[in-house]
Amino acid sequence: MAKITEKQIVFTEHFKRLVLDSLIEGMTREETFNRTLGVNCFDKKFVDTCLGRWRRKVRAVGDLHPEKKGRRKSLENMTFEEMKAEIAYQKEVIAHLKKLKGLADDEL
Predict the structure, then answer these.
(1) Rounded CA gap, 43 and 46, in Å?
(2) I want to staple 27 with a disulfide (CB 3.0 to 4.6 A). Which of 18, 22, 31, 73 is the partner?
(3) What angle do CA 48, 12, 50 make, to 5 degrees?
(4) How far apart are the C-alpha atoms of 25 and 31, rounded to whole Å?
(5) Residue 72 contacts residue 86 (beta carbons within 8 Å)
(6) pLDDT of residue 68
């Protein structure tokens, strides 16, 4: 496990892949999940929900890597090409916002 909070359990990519790839012969998915973690606290519903979500992600994206979230790189650490791409993205966002504002003004 990567992290446990009051409301959430975050499993590592390695654990997810291990459980998805190796169901131990003669054991249920629930038993495999719990045995791999060395616990006996996850019920069938929780295990099936996790495995289903992980399988859908593998089918849709092709892997289990989490999406990158959070802040962008600081300017000091960006290459020239990354800065150009960031500026182009910001220009698109500004143009979109101007268009939305223009539409909103027309409606008033």
Answers:
(1) 6
(2) 31
(3) 10
(4) 11
(5) yes
(6) 61
Which DSSP category does 12 fall into? -
Confidence of residue 105 (pLDDT cuts 50, 70, 90): low
- Tokens linked to 41: 């606290």
How far is residue 25's CA from residue 87's CA, in Å, rounded to a whole number? 54
Bridge partners, 4 (sequence order): 9
pTM here is 0.52
> How far is residue 13's CA from residue 25's CA, in Å, rounded to a whole number?
22
pLDDT tens digit sequence for 10-50: 888 888 888 887 766 777 888 888 888 888 888 889 888 98
